[in-house]
Amino acid sequence: MSNKRNSQGDGPNQRQLRVGELIRRTLADVLNRAEIHDPDLNRMSITVGEVSVSNDLKVATVYVMPLMGSVPVEDAIAALARNKGELRHRVASQLTLKFAPDLRFRPDETFDRLDETRRLFSDPKVVKDLSAPDEDDAAPEGGTPPDRDA
Description:
Radius of gyration: 23 Å
CATH architecture: 2-Layer Sandwich
CATH superfamily: K homology (KH) domain
Shape: flat
Oligomer: single chain
Strand content: 5-15%
Largest sheet: 3 strands, mixed
CATH class: Alpha Beta
Number of helices: 6
Strand order of the largest sheet: 1-2-3
């Protein structure tokens, strides 16, 4: 049997997902409780949408967004970057990893993509295509539709 540890898979493995979720929860708790010694950061309401972790678990990319557009996302990322050392220390105290991952903050664009998807689905052309019957469901020429239970 071959060892597939070093193979490049399609997505993150189970450990990366688990570590990313632990980092996300820890950062969300720290930011929610305003435990960082930066008054500018503590005044911001920031949501941590997702954390993706590199294969070696040494780099964690944190996707954040200020709640309700309270502050520009660039200001929130700058405040988080200023306090990266303290945030990294808080994360390291909650995880049992050999290395504390380096935190990199990026804007969470999930909501923008969601709005774009909604806009696309409301396009009249797309609505027409979605409401049209599928070719697979149509009856073959000169016969009845195939029995799908067989």
